[in-house]
Amino acid sequence: MRQCWYCGKWFRSMEALREHLAHCPARMLERSFNFGPYVKVEERLERVEKLRKLMKGEKEVRKHVRTKCGREKEKANYSHDRLITKLRRNNLPQPEEEKYYFREVAVGWKVLGINFDFKDDVLYFIERVSRMCNGGSRIIKRLEMQSEELGIIKKLVELNLICKDMFWMVEITGDKHKLNLLKYIDCVCIVKSSAWVIEAKERLNYEAVGQVNVLSYLFSRDYPQFSIKKAIVCERTDPLIESFCKEFNIAVFHLPH
């Protein structure tokens, strides 16, 4: 039996190991990081284990970015996904400006007295992959990481936003038992110094109005640096509720079938 030094997999023969090494992602990733040929075995194995964790994390991040941040080309299966996809296709809100969309953003941290910081491994991963993107490294194709997706991840870290199912990226301090009390915004659209808190409902109703008001308040507590704007995207509207929204500065994007 022979073991790959890079990823730790075992092979029955040296020929099988050689064939594996030609396409071993961990080997390619390590070489692209320029660790050099003269590394102690213990240090090499430690680095390989870290790389394996990073690659696993990269897949989770990429999956979230594609499905939750609107990068997946597949047909949306749920009403929220369908509505946010329509919103993006219509380049709303503020069509003339560059914008970033983030799905299921967690809010309520300050009110609950919980803090989080991105882990060093995540920052390390972003820095290294950024360098490879800039250098045009072929490893990007191996990892199936697109520069557009990487830009979203970098923006998440830059803005200190955290989305649902991405808590593994952060170190949490405070009462962790309160994490289940956090609320989630259907979509946050960042346009320069403004943040649009967007609620998606098939039909404009009281629930949508209440949710967008509560969530925008919690977001403003967590991120006071942004100018907060509220919006509801829907497929069916109600003229009475829409008049209320207009009076209290809640934008309504009516995008019918």
Can you walk me through this structure?
This protein is α/β, with parallel strands linked by helices and 257 residues long. Helices cover 46% and strands 21% of the residues. The chain has helices at 14-21, 25-32, 41-68, 79-89, 109-112, 120-135, 139-143, 147-159, 206-222, 239-247; strands at 2-3, 10-11, 100-107, 115-118, 170-173, 183-191, 194-203, 227-236, 250-254. It is elongated, with a radius of gyration of 22 Å. Mean pLDDT is 78; it is low at 30-39, 70-77 and 136-145.
Enumerate how many helices there are, as a single number.
10
Task: Report the biggest beta sheet as strand number plus sense, adding barrel if it closes.
Answer: 5 strands, mixed
- SSE ordering: EEHHHHEHEHHHEEEHEHE
Secondary structure class reads alpha/beta
Beta percentage is: 15-25%
The top level CATH class name of the domain at 74-114 and 174-257: Alpha Beta
- Kindly identify the CATH topology of the domain at 74-114 and 174-257: Trna Endonuclease, Chain: A, domain 1
What is the residue-averaged pLDDT? 78
What does the overall shape look like? elongated
- The radius of gyration is 22 Å
The level of helicity is 40-55%
Distance between the termini: 60 Å
CATH A-level architecture of the domain at 74-114 and 174-257:
3-Layer(aba) Sandwich
Biggest β-sheet: strands ordered side by side in the sheet: 3-6-7-8-9
Low-confidence stretches: 30-39, 70-77, 136-145
What is the count of β-strands? 9
